[in-house]
Predict the 3D structure of the following.
Amino acid sequence: MLLKKNAKLILEDGSVFYGFSFASESSVSGEVVFSTGMVGYPESLTDPSYKGQILCLTYPLIGNYGIPSNETDRYSMPKNFESYAIHIQGLVISDYSFEYSHWSAKKSLGEWLKEHNIPGIYGVDTRELTKKLREKGSMLGKIIINGKDVELYDPNKVDLVKEVTIKKPVIYDNSNNKARENQRFSVHERSSAQSFALVSQKSLISVNSIENNSDKKDNFNRNKKLNQNNSIIEMSEIAKGAISCASAQSKPAISEHAQKHATHFSAGSVFDKIKIIKKNSKNKKIVILVDCGVKNNIMRNLLKRELAVIRVPYDYDFFKLDFDGIVLSNGPGDPKMCKTAIANIKKAIEKNIPVFGICLGNQILALAAGADTYKLKYGHRSQNQPCVMEGTKRCFITTQNHGYAVDTKTLPKEWEPLFTNINDNTNEGIKHKTKPFFSCQFHPEANPGPVDTEFLFDEFVKKLSQ
C-alpha cells in the first residue's frame, strides 16, 4: 500500500490547500500561477519563463503519459524538452496518475521531478485555487511537505533572467550543408505545410562556442519557402556547462557524439568564424539571439530557416560582431530588470538593425522604444489564447506564458500594436510603422501548442534582406 506523505500549499493571504507529495520532499516558495493547458507538461516545466514560480495545472488528470526520453534532435537539443532543466519551483495538481502509458515514456512525472529536486503536490482543489488566483491575482505561496517550513520568496524582485541566460556566447552555424535531399515531414512539421511550401534538406550543423570578446500589416507574407534541416551535430562549450541549469542535480542532455566532436575556439576566433560563414555563403544571414531564457524551439525555427545564430547572454555587448538582425527571446520575470538588454536594443533600433522580439522580448523592445510595461493580474498561461492581428479580421490561436504586458497607451507615435488578445484586450505584439522592428507577446514557436503564427519567423527573415 502506497504511504501518502502530507503536503500543503499556503498562499500569502493565509489560504491553505491540502494534498499529498508525489515528487521531491523539499519545501519551496515562489509566485503561484496557473496554466490551463491540457497536455504539454514536459515542455512547459522546462520553459525557463517559469523560473521562480509554483505552477498549478488546471487540467484534472496529470502524469498519465509519463515523461519521454532525453534523446536529442538534429541540432543536438533535447527533442522533448524546451531546455536542459526543470525551471518551476514546484508543481500543484488535482489528480496524479501513478501509472503512465505512452510509447515514448521512459519514466513517471514524479520520478522526473525527484531527479531535479522539484516538489509536487496532488489532491489539491485546483479549481478553487484557480478561482482565487483569478479573483485576487497571482500571489506568493509555498509548498510545505512533512512540516518543513520555508520563508516566502518573491521572484519578481530578482533578476531571474540572469539565472537562466547562457553564460558564454555560442555560434550555431549551418553553413556546411552539402548534402541535400527531400525528407519526410514529421506531424509537427506537416502542420506548417498548410501555410508554407516546405523544402527539406540534410546539412552539417556545427555548434561552436566562442569566448567573450573585444508597413503595413499585410506585409506578413505566409508564402515564403522554408528550409528544413536534418543534421549531424558538433558541439563545444555547452558540454562543459555553458548552459545554466536551474538545479544542481540537472545535467545538460548532451549526446556522446556531440561531446566527442566538440570544437573549441580561442578568444577572438568568433570574428574569424563569422568571416568563414560569410565566405562560404555570401547570402547567409547572421542573427544575434539575445538569450533571456530562450526555448529550444525558437532556436530550431531560426536554424531551419538557414540562419547562422550567435546566441549571447542577455547583457552581452554584441555590437562588436558582424550580424544582420536581432532576436529577443522569451524569459522570466520583470522586463525592467533587464537594463543592459534594454539599452542594447535601444541602440540597435537607432542603428535600424532588424529586431524580432518574442514574449519577454516584446516587452524589452517596447521599453527600448520608450513605452511602459505593467504586471497582469494573473497572467496568460495556456495553449489556446486567441489573438487578432491589428488591421485584419484574422484571429490566431496561440501559446502563451507571461505575467507582464506592454501598455500600448505609452507607445511612441512611430509605433503601433500588432496583435491584441481577444480575451482581455491586452497587447500581444508591437511594430514600428516604417522600420524593421516588431514583436509578439505569444510564442510563435509553440511547444506545446499550435504553430499558427510560425510565419512570423519568415517575416523576420524577409526583413533581414530589406
About this structure: The chain is about 20% helix and 30% strand.
